[in-house]
TrEMBL record:
The gene is mltB. Residues 40-330 form the Transglycosylase SLT domain. CDD domains: Slt35-like. It comes from Pseudomonas schmalbachii. Residues 1-33 form the signal peptide. Keywords: Signal. Pfam families: SLT_2 (PF13406). This is Lytic murein transglycosylase B.
Length: 340
């Protein structure tokens, strides 16, 4: 990827678009017909990109000749959902000694950048580190699919969510043009999530930042940009500096479970939740919008009140268990590093 970036950046310095250099990056108009050659869906998509965003149609058609339909991607996304894990099963996947140890190492390696991100965005370093740890084990598991293949396969051959993935494909091509990167060089998950923080293309364009100031955003192998981008994402989704994330709770009325939040969006404030019989271990304001949560843990049923910052974490991944894993891993990494 670095070679492709260097080449395209050199062209960019001369004011040249990647879409006008398809042949130079291996997208030859005379290439052998690919999986999407002659596809009416692709033709319509190319027409939209040329009309709405000024892309060169012939070069996009040439690009799609090199795109591959991946059955393994369709198999992965169509696989029946696993049985929903309980918290006592979910937590040990992410809050592990190995992930804590690697998190401390990552923090030590990038301490200055993390401190700068915390100062600029108000997001504690341990939460930035934890997101990268949960998402990709600090870069160990970033995905090996070409993003063009993933988004094209799902956008043109997976009807249940085709609209979503075609929108992400549009965002991806815009991203590649803006960053002057060969779109065939970028890799990610089978769903098109990219880099150390696993951003989808729309999130990249909305929240990713050039945190090292080199003029380009590279979340694949530039930890500085990945760190700044996670902090930017949290900040723009409403992270409240210095505020807690969750509070352990006890239930004091027989029907208190009726106040459990359906879904993730807060439906009542803490004062209202208290009238339902919920008591938090921490002293908190009644006007906070909260999420009432029940987990099945190692020691039995746990009740938690998710606060606004907890909700911010669920905006990264729409799962209460995910957000709690990020929170608890962040705490363990901070403690292991001696941060209180």
């Amino acid at each position: 990827m670095k070679k492709g970036m260097q080449l395209l950046r050199a062209w960019a310095a001369r004011g040249v678009h990647w879409v006008g250099l398809a042949g130079a990056i291996g997208i030859s108009g005379a290439a052998q017909a690919g999986d999407y050659d002659g596809s009416p869906q692709v033709a319509e998509f190319v027409s939209e990109m040329t009309r709405d965003y000024g892309f060169a149609g012939e070069q996009l058609i040439a690009l799609f000749r090199d795109v591959e339909r991946k059955q393994s991607i369709l198999d992965a996304i169509s696989r029946p959902a696993e049985r929903v894990k309980s918290w006592k099963e979910y937590r040990p996947i992410f809050v592990t000694d190995a992930r804590i140890k690697r998190g401390v190492e990552f923090w030590n390696q990038h301490a200055e950048v993390l401190a700068r991100a915390e100062k600029e965005y108000g997001v504690p370093a341990q939460y930035i580190v934890s997101i990268i740890g949960v998402e990709t084990f600090f870069g160990r598991n970033t995905g090996g699919f070409r993003v063009m293949d993933a988004l094209s396969t799902l956008g043109f051959d997976y009807p249940p969510r085709a609209d979503f993935f075609r929108k992400e494909l549009k965002q991806f091509l815009l991203l590649a043009r803006e960053q002057q990167v060969d779109p065939l060089s970028l890799t990610g998950s089978y769903a098109g999530a990219m880099g150390l923080p696993q951003f989808m293309p729309s999130s990249f364009r909305a929240y990713a930042v050039d945190f090292d100031g080199d003029g380009h955003i590279n979340i694949w192998n530039d930890p500085d940009d990945a760190i700044g981008s996670v902090a930017s994402y949290f900040k723009q989704h409403g992270w409240q500096t210095g505020e807690p994330v969750v509070s352990r709770a006890e239930l004091g009325k027989p029907n208190a479970e009726e106040a459990l939040t359906q879904g993730l969006d807060p439906q009542m404030n803490l004062g209202q939740l208290r009238t339902q019989g919920w008591r938090t271990q921490d002293v908190l304001r009644d006007d906070l919008m909260v999420t009432a949560i029940r987990f099945e843990g190692d020691q039995g049923t746990e009740y938690w009140v998710g606060l606004p910052n907890f909700y911010v974490i669920t905006r990264y991944n729409r799962s209460a268990m995910y957000a709690m894993a990020v929170h608890q891993l962040a705490g363990e990494i901070a403690r292991a590093r001696g941060v209180h």
